[in-house]
Amino acid sequence: MTEIEHAMPRRRLPVITGILVLIALAILISLGTWQVERLHWKEGLLADIAARQVAAPVPLADIEAMAASGGDIEYRKVTATGRYINNKERHFFATWRGQTGFYVYTPLELADGRALLVNRGFVPYENKEPEMRMQGQLTDQQTVTGLAREKLPGKPSWVVPDNDIAKNIFYWKDLDVMAESVGLEKARVIPFFVDADSTPNPAGLPIGGVTQVDLPNDHLQYAFTWYGLAAVLVAVVGISWFRKPGKQPAQ
Questions:
Q1: Each residue of 40-69: pLDDT tens digit?
Q2: At a CB cut-off of 8 Å and minimum separation 6, what does 185 contact?
Q3: 145: CB partners within 8 A, 6+ apart
Q4: What is the DSSP letter of 97?
Q5: What are the beta bridge partners of residue 124?
Q6: Residue of 169, 192, 174 whose CA lies nearest to 90
Q7: pTM value?
Q8: Any alpha helices (H) in 55-96, and if so which ranges?
């Protein structure tokens, strides 16, 4: 091998390394910028949700129209009037303020005969059965105010247990199965839920106002991480580039 052939890889290596560094730097900066964009989007979303929760409630028909047109109904304040079908309530396994129990989903029969599944709120585990809280089983016409909640498109995760229909224990909110399991015709069920507000029920159960807005916002932290890695990469390359080479060993 000639001296020129031997030297070529040495001259080519810094160029290849430089290209790889630029690619890595571009990826890190892009990831950081993407997280900043996500941060602005998430902050806007949280502000929008907060505004919806304090807005004046609108009639159920308005939310239905919005849902039918593909609009975002999540957490919008709504009001509906009807009679609870107490013998068809469904129980969603949940915790509330550290206590294990259930959210009680009860169909509200509307004037036109359709049904709206209302999350009336939380009951402790020992109060799962209606006979343990009979005072809260409202029988006359009710006007419910709460937050519209979209139906889930499917099981949230494989780690979530399957719903136990026989025991009336739901581990994820499958609106269609909840309705079907109590004989409600799908075509006559409103295609979203309503979480009732904190208006007290007789004897205190169910406990309303249990909606939890759990939208983590860690995008700023992620942005600092990616930008920080980019800065470290630049520092390492800069130190390597400007570092004085050591003395060559004696021949």
A1: 777 777 777 788 888 999 999 999 999 999
A2: none
A3: 57, 77, 78, 79, 196, 197, 199
A4: T
A5: 101
A6: 169
A7: 0.76
A8: 60-68
